Amino acid sequence: MNKKKNQTSIGLDALITEVFNMFTLEEQQELINILNHNGLEKLYQQMEEVFYDYQQPDYNSEATPIAAYLQKLWDMQTYEDYPFDEFKKDCTTVPAAELEKDLRNFILQLFIHYQGPLENTKEENRPFKLWYIYWAMEHYRMESSLNIILEIMRQSPTFLSSYCHLIQDEATIAIIYQLGQNQLPLLLSFMNENGIAPFGKEDICSAVAQIAINNPERRLEIINWFCQLLNSYYDRFERGEDNNLSIIDYITDVLMNIRAIETLPILEKIYKRFKIPNTLTRKGFKEIKKEMPRAKLKGLDVDSMEELMNLLNEFITFNENHKFDDNEFDEEYDDEFDDDEFDDDEFDDDEYNESFYIEEQTSKKLNIKISLINSDPEIYRIVEVPSNIRLESFADVINTAMGWEGYHMHLFQKGKTIYTTEESDDDFWFDPVKTVNSYSLSLGEILTRKGSHIKYEYDFGDSWMHRITLESQQAYKKDETQGIFLIDGANACPPEDCGGIYSYQEILEALKHPHSKAAKEYREWLGKNFNAHKFNAKKVERELRDFPIRIF
Length: 552
Fold this sequence. Notes:
This protein is an alpha+beta fold. About 45% of the residues lie in helices and about 10% in strands. It is built from 24 helices and 8 strands. An 8-stranded mixed sheet has the order 5-4-3-6-7-1-2-8, covered by helices on one side. α13 packs antiparallel against α14, α13 packs parallel to α15 and α20 packs antiparallel against α24.
């Protein structure tokens, strides 16, 4: 079997990723359901025959009986059997060291008692068992638990299909990112192991790349990690120890996401020596080399289990509040309305347009930092706003404070929830879990605690991405003015329609050479007085006074 492996190069994992990305979330689930009834288990078994031969240790020799307080999690078949809030409460009753030991043992028992993905069809929510465990490990900062997470990644494709998603498992990537930030050598060692399914290795690459996205000061450290990884793969391919060339395509795609131009020399060496499939990148090396310096930085939508579980709770609550019988609804609708009686204005959202604040909410004073993502030096503003300002109204505040003219479209995003005034239809440009009208709720309902954040995108063409972070909140003093005020800020807003953050960085680089042809052209466009490092605070303060004072 090993000989056969070395003669065969199969990019099946990359192919599956490509196929699934062609579908919406609903279509992906339908496809999975179809495969479940038409041989998905056989497909996973074929994967194991091709590239999986990990020799599992004797888990029985180490495992102990499940802790009593985790028995409900062990027996859980659906989310409703053991609500997440109940699990969190149970965790608080156990000392941290004992909890970590019990969680690790729980995972060992999953390995031991695993019976295959389709044998117990009642366990529709199997992944939740690991999500609960992941959350506890993250919440209590159990970095030493990274070893058992990696052991999960060493399990068979059929196990991973039951407890993890094979296609970009956000939960697994998030926990590896959270626990592995200070354990890069361990992650590199895992990447060089033989005989394990490629999915876990892809998740590790995404998790490591996220470190560079969230911590720009560690970027060179992460680039060095990837260079070591690529050099080791080159040597492995040369010696015939590994035939999974598609992993390079995946790594390249990840490196595009962090604009890792420093890796181009070793990538070029690999692409010239081996026939690398381009299922994900869809580019030859010449295109990669040309596009990587200008690639759009892309990180995880959700990089913590805390945020993922909050989204899960929101999603479940949303579904529970919107359950109804389709037939019953249709009958009632037919009885109560006809075409002549239906009033479009009755369902108009214009009611939200009439007020800048949600007056019935008690407001707090929020200090909000608005930071343009990937700007260097950082372009930011700090503003004071009442918490009951409508989210859509706050978009006007952002545009004014930053210096945007405001004629482009915009949206807010938290996890996979989109907040916008635009109608979502089949032709729309995002596929969220749900879409919420940004007039219908306040900023304070979204940012509830210090450090919580939300993304704001302005101009879907240039895609100016902002990070909106709650820096502090406090009660207003008696008779204190409740309005919009500038607290701090730095650096000028980029010019509208200049192509996005990376094009703007190219402009700034060109302006460093004032006698160059490019600099002269940019100066003609920007005007002689443009100064990227100048922030006109007085102008912004004056413009923010135009927003209404909160009446209470």
